[in-house]
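thoughts on both lines:
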Amino acid sequence: MRFARNLLSVALILTVARAAVADKPDELAQAKTAIQARAAAIRTAFAEHNAAAIAAFWTPDGDFVNSDGRRVEGREAIEGAFAQFFEENPDVTVRTTLLSVRQIAPGVVVNDAIAEASPRPAGPPKEYRFSLVNVRRGGKWLVAAAREAALPIPSNYEYLKEMEWMIGDWHAARDDAVLQSKCDWTPNKNFIIRSYTVDRQGRLDIGGLQRIAWDPVGRRITTSSIDSDGSVFQGVMTRRDNRWTEKETGTLRDGTPVSSTTIITRIDNDTFTLRCVQRTVGGVPQDDIDTIKIRRKTSDE
């Protein structure tokens, strides 16, 4: 699946390539027009999950080698890899940045680019760089060879990876309230951002945003949150087995101090429970919030 994801990155890089080819200005213009048309065709092929149309932009004996050294050779094999990718990853998109385009010989152009997939793959963050060798065959520009290099990115992922299971969309319902939550990595996986809303009887009751971060001084996981009612909070998270405890303090919009302890218990990769205890407002104890079960949203929800 990862190899197919890499192929997706390479194909989308084709959509941003610009050629510097040939010796005559009119040939250069023709090459640019042809590559722009190829870019539009690739976007259409991706929208239609048309692996054959994408593979057609390689030469019959073209290949792709990923950062692990695995090679897919030949148009037919490349088509099969894309078909597998579309089956396993229907929602993945890739953003690309073109670094350079250069001519190395008549009818041969190399372009270099960076690709970033969304949602981000699990594991330590890496920057994926690609080099594509484009050749002119029968009046068309085709990929003869594609190479990938994965470069590590400085990150706090090592300290936050225990919470990677939270990445995704979540929901829960109780009585007349519906909770929706989404967790995602920031670029380079230095933080996790969690957004959340609570609707009651179809209307927004409260929403907010939380940042989960590594504190290099205190050597601990910390949180900072803001709610739509003007409240702000700071917290510290600790872990014991499959349970995370978050102790928060903060203030309401009018300056009243508040505090609470939230207990998150992971049941499995798609389910966890949440309970809020030791709640105070202005120093006055408040009732606990009973345990609520929160599930990962499925693709059809």
